[in-house]
Amino acid sequence: MKMSKMFMPTLREVPADAEITSHQLMLRAGMIRKMASGVYNQLPMGIRVFNKIQDIIREELNEKGCQEILCSALIPAELWKESGRWDVMGAEMMRLKDRNDRDFCLGPTHEEVFTDLIKQEITSYKQLPLNLYQIQVKYRDERRPRFGVMRTRSFTMKDAYSFDTDEAGLDKSYQDMFDAYTNIFARCGLDNSPVQADTGAIGGSVSAEFMVKSEVGEDEIVFCSGCDYAANMEKAVAVVAEPSTEEMKELKEVHTPGVHTIEELENFFKLSADKFAKTLVYVADGKTVVVVVRGDREVNETKVGNAVGGVVEFELANEEVVKAVTNAEIGFAGPIGIKADYVLIDNEVANARNLIIGANKTEYHIENANYGRDFEGTVGDFRNVTEQDKCTKCGSHFEIARGVEVGHIFKLGTKYSEAMGCNFIDKDGKSKPVVMGCYGIGVERTAAAIIEQHHDENGITWPLAIAPYHVVVVPVNIKKEEHMEVAEKIYNDLQAMGVEVLLDDRDERAGVKFKDSELIGIPMRITVGKDIVDGKVEFKLRKSEEKEVISLDEIKSRVE
Ligand code: ATP
Ligand code: MG
Ligand code: MG
Ligand code: MG
């Protein structure tokens, strides 16, 4: 491409409203332009980068036997009503009506669409397994779009869905995608880690997020210093540090059980959340029972009753409930998650004695309530894991870092197939729900994460595999025929070799051209200037300070 013809509006100044490096550099390098809050247009330099990432994704997924399709982004509400998510998705879903007043949405994700497609087309186990994917624009009316394309309201996602006949099949599909993701992000030059993740609104049992460690990340990740345990803070479990007797004394002095104002309680909770690891129960106003649950024993997903940290409010509470909770002694372990309480109340487990799961006093337990089945919750719902806490696997301390979620994989099981009647006839002649997984990668966010890890004070330093072009040829002065002639010859030769090459034939000073090529991060630069009288050019790598004068014959071997 000749740069004189290129639509590449670069900026010298740092745009005022761009807070993070990747956002600033994408704007400055002329990759993107903002149209509305969280809505961006993609320009040639941006498109090339996003396409490179998409190509890598395609190669790695095709390698695993996945097949590309493309579904509509415009989705009728009926599908979402079938799965039950029309009401669950809330304000993040972009909804609209057609001329006949029928409800539609712009897809924020496509579990329903893919499940429905398979339901219509698949009848027998012989047609499974399948793994289908698409690369398509998703719409999410994010509460807080920010950081350029890191969090937008319309973004390109690769979303894949696997369909298996049983759990063992799903395990393999999931592992295949895990491996593909590992390859994809490595090829993108990203230093990243898979971490255990919460399944959130998508649902399902097992899930991993691919996290790029970065100060600008909106997620907090917990890494064990002694083993391979790594989890999103939302999901992290830990053996919580014990409070000292001193700290317990302080807590008791500040607050005594009884009737308290909400304000007093709030102060108390702040204090206790920072410092303590014991369970205490307070009656706020005779109506609201507030429980601080800070377990001091080992916690993991299966040990309900040894919950950790935080505040639980029971809104309902008749007198009996209040009594039951206040009767629970210090040291009882309360419900493990805030969600749990709502579930319990919704289920009208009204019997006061049954309100508490895992109380250490007999007759104060909810009988037969199982974590995962009857309610959800993690340590993170109450109190974040800290560096003082210990790994439940190996007992080592944690490191806590910020991360950008670039990919996310889930085992969905039969959640959607059961809700939507997506069944197949198995070998034994029985009709069974298809066992599903789903797998997402944000294309533009991945590009932003790459810039966060690959830049210097002069601009982007793209890894070769992602760079919009591999080489830029810079004639120092386009008015000098000998510069232009040689530059054009190099440009044509490289192009014939299949190298993606730019010719900076703009009538600008060399300094301006160098600045632009550094800003947009082209990995190799060939400058045609005064040395051409000796048949030589200057060769420079973007990532190195060194400039080498090489002969024209050497170019080919350097670039290959
Ligand atoms: P986040 O926690 O950042 O809101 P998410 O968990 O809601 O992301 P998923 O539903 O798991 O996102 O979607 C898969 C991938 O799509 C994410 O891992 C991310 O790379 C990308 N993605 C999600 N939301 C956005 C967004 N608003 N803008 C850009 N990319 C996004
Ligand atoms: Mg989200
Ligand atoms: Mg997330
Ligand atoms: Mg996610």
UniProtKB/TrEMBL annotation:
Name of this chain's protein: Proline--tRNA ligase
Keyword terms of this UniProt record: Aminoacyl-tRNA synthetase, ATP-binding, Cytoplasm, Ligase, Nucleotide-binding, Protein biosynthesis
Chain coiled-coil ranges: none
Species of the source: Romboutsia ilealis
Oligomer and partners: Homodimer.
Keyword DNA repair appears in the UniProt entry: no
Keyword match Membrane: no
Catalytic activity: tRNA(Pro) + L-proline + ATP = L-prolyl-tRNA(Pro) + AMP + diphosphate
